[in-house]
Sequence to fold (383 residues):
Amino acid sequence: MRRRLVILGSTGSIGKSALDVVASRPDEFDVVGLSAGTRAQTLLEQAREFNVDCIALADEQHREPLTTQAPPGTHVFTGSAGLIELVEASQADLVLTAIVGAAGLPSTLRTVELGIDVALANKESLVVAGDIIIPLAAETGSRLIPVDSEHSAIFQSLQSGRAEEVRRILLTASGGPFRTWTTEQIQQATLADALQHPTWTMGPKITIDSATMMNKALEIIEAHYLFGIPANRIDVLVHPESIVHSMVEFIDGSTVAQLGTPDMRTPIQYALTYPERVDGIADHIDWTQISRLNFELPDETRFPALRLGRQAAAQGGTAGAVFNAANEAAVARFQREALRFVEIAQVVEEVMDRHAPTLHPSLDELLAADAWARDEVAACLAT
Ligand code: NAD
Ligand code: MG
Fold:
């Protein structure tokens, strides 16, 4: 049976890889909706190639080519409300959430509210609003299937046992481009340095998050929500080769892992075809080329992000929203070269220190905490 698929964020790194997967299995998917932030031309090309009826562009300013060039009969939605209208109109079986940042939250929430299954790449939506999304999904029957490589690995490994048999999760991390750099070298790190990821090719925000290890901090919180495991039973293990995508240690002493080449098309495909496994388009591991796999503990002195992520997880309530939003605002400044690399974690810590978390927040309180944290980043840097 063909599955009706929507891809939110189709012009990004995950979105394009997902379309590669779909193109390799033309009999299995109907792409019924695509969305982009600003890149109207790319969105139009994708819509033509995959014969898509509904498209949405978040940025109204760039809508012009869509209204004049979209094939007749195409439904064009715009603005942040347009993303939600696209999901509502699509009658999708599965929505891949591949928007970057908390901007992906409203459309993720609407998908879950409608009881539609989610292939979840947009980890920020869970970090901000996991306390709302997870119970809502249980109520509506929407399944959250992880796309993040580590979470896909954990999801697959968890199939070896029962929830009460899990001792801990070992979340692997490449360590990013600064894994072997000294504190002094990291002080001098530039934007170009931070954008050189050793093993994965990804969008700019997550690449910078990998350099600070904020990505791993966000992933601890993501794993906590997806798998219902407390953050203090999720340990980070640095594994520079990015072959072991994560592991689950069970109470009997067995550790189960999922391995693969560092190619997002594998976990994306698994999320799209779950529970089936089908031929994959990514390279398989060539064991003649691998002589050793290395593991080391993370260094929280050089990478304070991990400690901050654990603090946000322990505080709960609005702390995740503040942690995420402060990081997004700091990374945006770093991308404009208006902030130094090491200042990202410093400003996030300062904003977190200024925040008194509200427990059991409503969605409005989470959105207000997000907006507050973004303003507070500006305020911290102004003083
Ligand atoms: P990207 O920057 O390459 O793409 C982001 C997509 O979101 C683009 O289509 C862009 O147009 C759209 N977008 C950006 N801002 C938007 C806004 N305000 N409103 C609506 N749409 C907007 O990012 P990416 O690397 O593909 O990452 C997407 C998500 O997947 C992130 O949450 C990231 O953490 C997660 N993820 C990515 C990878 C990876 O390999 N790239 C791996 C694991 C998880
Ligand atoms: Mg990941």
Q: What stands out?
A: The CA atoms of residues 67 and 76 lie 7 Å apart. The radius of gyration is 20 Å.
